[in-house]
Amino acid sequence: MSEFRPTRREFIKSAGALGVLSALPVSVVELAFADPQKNFTFAYISDAHIQHIKGTEFVRNWDRGLIRAVAETNLLQPKPDFVMFGGDLAQLGTKPELDHGAEMLSKLEYEVHCVMGEHDYYLDLGAYWSELFGPHYYSWDHKGVHFVVLNSILTYDEWTHERWPTAEQRMLEMAGLDNPNGSPFMVGEEQRTWLRQDLAKVKRGTPVVVFSHSPIQKIYKGWNFWTEDAEQVQALLQPFKNVTVVYGHVHQIQYNQIGNISFHAVMATAWPWPYPQSYAQAKSNLPKLTVPMNRADPFFERDATGWQFIDIDSGRVAMHYNLYNNTNRTVAFNRKTGQPEDSAYQAADSRIAPQIHY
Ligand SMILES: [Fe+2]
Ligand SMILES: [Fe+2]
Predict the structure, then answer these.
(1) Model confidence at 194, in pLDDT bands (50, 70, 90)?
(2) CA of 151 relative to ligand 2 center, distance in Å
(3) Which of 41, 87, 247, 335 lies in the 20 to 30 Å Cα band around 48?
(4) Whole-model pTM?
(5) How far is the CA of 348 from the centre of ligand 1 (A)?
(6) pLDDT tens-place string over residues 221-260
(7) What percent of the chain has pLDDT over 90?
(8) Ligand 2 centre and the CA of 121: distance in Å?
(9) Which ligand ends up closest to the CA of 214?
């Protein structure tokens, strides 16, 4: 997977000709097959966090991230077959935020599939989001790949329905990154039953790509980089030869391999999060990342946001992070070690040292 196929070279040439794409917070995904006629691309935008202030005022920085991603996605050549939005369109799930975000997404000249984020959900439990974007979980087939969208940000019924006096408070409690009043995310039994039935129709050799908001793995519970029933969901996916889970929510580069399942996070259009261990000095289950973020300037609010190409070749993913104002990265599946690895910065002396500010 370290070599690009000719179609990718063409793609990069086209992207380079545009001259602006390397600064975009949008992910471009290419699925490469042995038969080039089957190759296709899709774009991935995530975590816009559109935030209402009052009246017609919104936080401009978050607006700009999404507006730019949408505009540049419309300029992509070749055109992606569809666009994914990975969740957290809104900051506090309000109608003005969802309307404003949906209006920006409506400028996309493609079919759009949306994933539910916790910031979209916990005010009205996804009711208005559904009016705009449809069901919370679903699947479809496209050119030989089975795509699944899960709503992975559900939690215990007692927390959702009984604990909080108002819906607004419930939303605020779940919106905090490190709030001990939050509750672990989960896919839940109803969706797992649906997923089992959905996958029963899919051949074991068919590549399966799952989109979730939270990682379908356990990384750091304190920040809800976590899915409580991750193992049960993984068990449903393990029988398939080539499975990839692509998730938002963490606003940072992460990658992992558990059995047959490769995990890749995508970047946000809004802001980057630090890594749990760098912030809280706490134990986390973050897999060993040889170069976690390569974030040179933590005081630059757009550093470590960006966009990605994702190649899937025989079901294995190579994610090409094109980082905003930073050195590009490639995280590709290494067939020798059987896991995704950073391709460019394995040697310690070739890594970019963290920048120190005084
Ligand atoms: Fe987010
Ligand atoms: Fe989130």
Answers:
(1) very high
(2) 11
(3) 41
(4) 0.86
(5) 30
(6) 889 999 999 999 999 999 998 899 999 999 988 888 899 9
(7) 50
(8) 10
(9) 2
CA of 351 to the centre of ligand 2 (A): 29
Give the pLDDT score at 39: 67
- Give me ligand 1 centre to Cα 89, in Å: 8
Whether 8 shows a pLDDT value over 60: the answer reads: no
Could you tell me the distance, in angstroms and rounded to a whole number, from the CA of residue 273 to the centre of ligand 1?
A: 9
Structure tokens given for 105: 């997404």
pLDDT for 253-284, tens place per residue?
A: 888 889 999 999 998 989 888 887 776 667 77
> What is the 178 CA–ligand 1 centroid distance (Å)?
13
How far is residue 150 from each of residues 37, 141, 271, measured CA to CA in Å? 29, 15, 23
Cα of 233 from ligand 1 centre, angstroms: 22
